[in-house]
Amino acid sequence: MDTVLASPDPDALTRRLAELIAAGRMGVARPMLAALQRLGPPSPRLAELAALLAMREGRLDDAHAALDTALTAHPGHAALHRRRAEVRHRTGDLAGAALDAADSVVLDPSDTSGKAILGVLMTELGRAADGVRCLREAVAAAPRDPAYRQGLADAQAANGELDAAADTLAAGIGLAPESQELRNAAVLLAVRRHRFDDALMIAEAARRDGMADACLFGLKGHALSKLGRDQEAGEAYKEALKLGPDDPYVRHLVASSGWLPEASTAPPDYVRAVFDSYADRFDAHLISLGYRVPGVVRGALMRHAALPEDGRLGPVLDLGCGTGLIAVAIADLPVGPMIGVDLSPRMLARAEAKQLYAALHEAEITAFLDTDETEYPLIIAADVFCYFGAIEALMAAVSRRLQPGGLFIASFEELAAGPETERGWALGGRGRYAHTAGHVATSAATCGLTVLAMDEEQIRNEAAAPVLGRLAVLQRPRDAH
Amino acid sequence: MLIEPDNLDHAEALATLRAACAGGDRSPATLLNLAIAQDRNGEGERARRLMSELAVLLPDWDEPKLRLAESLRQAGRAAEAERAYDAVLEVNPRREEALVARAALLIQLGDADTAQKLLLRCIGINPQRAEAWDALGLALMLNGDAGTAESAFSEAQRWAPAVLSYALHRVEAAHAAGQLPGETARLELAADADPLDPVLFTALGLARERLGRRAESIDALETACALAPAAPIPAMMLARLLAHASRLREADAALRRACDLNPGNASLCNDRAAVLMRLHRHAAARALLDTLPPEAQSVTGVLCNLATVLVSLGEQEQGEITARRAIALDPASLLARRTLVNALPYRSGVSGAEMLAAVQDCAACLPARPEPAFTNSRDPGRKLRIGLLSGSLRTHPVGWLTVAGFEALDPTQFDLICLAQATGSDAIARRYRARAAEWHEVDGLDDVALATLARERSVDVLIDLGGYGELGRLIACAQRLAPVQVKWVGMQTHSTGLPEIDWFLSDKWETPSGLEQFYSERILRLPHGYVCYSPPAYAPDVGGLPAVENGFVSFGCFNNLAKITPEVMVAWAEILRRVPGSILVLKTYQFSEPEPSARVRDAFARLGIAGERSELRGASSHRQFMAEYNQIDVLLDPFPYSGGLTTCEALWMGVPTVTLPGETFASRHSTSHLSNIGLADWVAPDLPAYIELAVARSADLVALATLRSGLRERMKASPLCDAPRFGRDLGVALRHAWAEWCSRADGEVRSAPLLP
Questions:
Q1: How far is the C-alpha of B52 from the C-alpha of A310, rounded, in Å?
Q2: The whole model's pTM is what?
Q3: b/e per residue, B563-573, with b = 16+ CB within 10 A?
Q4: pLDDT tens across B576-600, in order?
């Protein structure tokens, strides 16, 4: 008789579970975790693995809850604190994450990864010097670890130590030449510093060492194109496309170089991917770029909106709210409640952490506008047009959601009018769309909106040079239906 | 008390009982126990005599009769066992064991109706008798009543939830009744509720497998194995499934475990040998097959693996002989025919006629089924749906040689419908996905389901990229997946011999005028070479000519050992003798194992070549493999199976190949690639010329160095790498094949003019 009875070995099963989660084999990990939970009393290790599994599956709340329960039972457990720091980091609770990371380091001073996490969090909390100190210790303990290196380089860059950041990456490449991430980070840093010759040199060395990565070739193309070597840039972009044919970021990069037919909007996946990977550094990065739009929007509101003496002007719809910088900029004005919409869940998590929004929606903007039924006295789209080529549909959708007399405030990068800009917009070299003032005004008129202002503004700095744009203040006429 | 199975050491029990009898205990129970112990101890005849005596002595006692019947059944004497069980039932019509066993014998004889009556009687007596429910289910299945059978199996499972076969039978019944999705959902819920039950996970594994959800099936079986690490059946199911899914490393580990848990199972051992071969561990596979007892070694499946192993180890003639033994043993075996087809292109001196005969014999073994007419609109100019049938749409020779061509096909004219197996997600796989209009994983689909899918998706022209290989699906092609079927790269060693493959993509060097007679297909000749090579982004830069620095010539061959015949080695030895100081570097994965290296070294020694003049290198990363061409001056192609992708890679690395084409398609790859980039003067017409050419070319280092330094740029600009041009050519060829079909009246087959 082929009787089969369970005779599992919990220790072997636990080890296997950890391997399976690391290998992304959730289809086996899930039932195995369930079996282990049935087999014995809860243990910190099992709670940690349960949390890790939940994290990998994007169930951050479940991960958090599992760790809370386990930490109540085992308050001094360093690994659990470390894991909760990661979860909190991902939910945007930076302060909470930093507390957990600090706890884990205090409880287990020999643990390198705790220090590294603490360093990253410190950097993101604006304490880059502290971040550098923590990450230096992590790198000293595990000099070959590419993630620690990259964290240190980021912290150094945030702390203004750009040469040190480049050195950190270069040393890391020497010790871990197989790390694609370090090579890409080094090229990216050089590109951000506008040292295109350096970027090209690092990218070329990586190619000679056999690195075949879409991003690397994409960045190489970018550097070559900045150096005016368009033919070679095209070759690099084509190679990038072969290596990452389905990578929306690469496609977008290649499209913006003119090597692929242009799409009229950036693909939602691209926007989501770019910003998800960027969310954690977004505020700091934009501010370091001299991002001025929130302040400009605030000024426009004070000039053009009829702000009430008592009560608030609202609800306010913040399209492409990102990490919530607009809400920060206008938090002291009598406006609200704030409703935010963005594609990137990680951006939204950061926005939520600011506690300035009454509601946040993960959605594509036009799709949201098409299903929403609220009428708003104020709709803001800061740095949104740059992801749209043709803006008519967006403008029409906005105008349908404006109250009579309501304002639509939108920033855009300005495209100088010329013979090749007949359609009013073009995809720029950095993968962003720019628009002519005429095109924005015409689109507004088509949708029945009146232009109250379209002032020229310096919307951010790039490479210490101002990027010029405009802030459109549009109004739906009071007698409109 | 009577002895129950396996609760005593038989010999010890027998001794005790004999002592008791000798001591005067002649009670019927003691005597029957003695008989049972004798039976267990291999003394069947003696035991049955004693049982018969007891049955005669005590005619109303059913126990000796039952034991006799069981002993007879165990001994395989079915007819006598039947009579013995009838005798039990005459004495005691309510004896459950006899009812079930008698029914089981009836089921074996195909008498499901009588079996059902006995089983229902048994269940009436004891509704908790699980084995009766199970046997009832089997009887119902035999009668084609799968739905009721499922209920019977579910009762069996209710009363004996730990018995695996009941749960597996239930899945099969649900499958037959068309209720599998429901049963799968039930199992998933049950497994959630009881995550410690290995039976549920094993059954879930089977159910998902039957639904074509192979990866999830593996997940469930792996869970079952983790929960019950000593259970042989889940281990076996998991191992086989991993092998089918081409997850080879996991399959090897799982098969090793399954072999340990199922000792003496030659078929599992053979499966493991097959996986070891696919992991390029041929010597290990051969050693494993050698451990099988002689009777297991002369089974078709084992012989076929052995034949393949021998070819891979460079013993091509032995391989062919072994494959022919397998055919003689079982002339209808497709596997045996396929093994010969895959061995023959490597054997020295193989002719076109020999190859054609072998493939046609093989094709004749494919099951022929009536093929319904196609309803595809016969418009020669419309956009076409091109089906790609392959287990290799990834980083693989098929990928390197076809992806750029498919990418370059005009998307307004051709949609690609990928019918793919074992693809993974490497960069080349993603390139196919990016170009494909539709992507269907056909891994878990049987041939009928695959044909149905291709027809549902209205494929106009199907391109087979698997041939008679491991993952090839030519059996399905024999049922026609599309009105026009074309053979291209992927075990494209020669013609398929299959009448349902209409066209064979080739070029004027691969299949020059005069060689068409050795193909069953019509030749679709591309004007500039039949493939388009995509070099990898990580290829190292081309270095200088090593001979300049070394002061001696380094010949090389980085082809599979299967291609290196004894005749090839004789030719190479002659070249080494004629070029003093030269060395020969051979690099292939087989040299990662010690035995093949030793054999080749010995063979060179017998040919008078000193050990230091040959260098055998094993597997490395692909980039390292390409980098090592920077140490080679001139490559020597093997024959009759020439280098294909290997020759392209070498050219990309600046190293030309001396080649000797024959009549078969596989013998002419290098000829095609070299001619395509303007190096037709590296092609030798016969063996003496091959040797002369190698000697002469290696003597002119200036010419070699010049050629080398410009070869990559030359190749980039040549048709071999010019994807846009290739895409246009391929489009014209496919359109030609399509238009030819459109021009036919329904069902009419006529030969079309060859493509110019």
A1: 109
A2: 0.75
A3: bbbeebbebbb
A4: 999 999 999 999 999 999 999 999 9
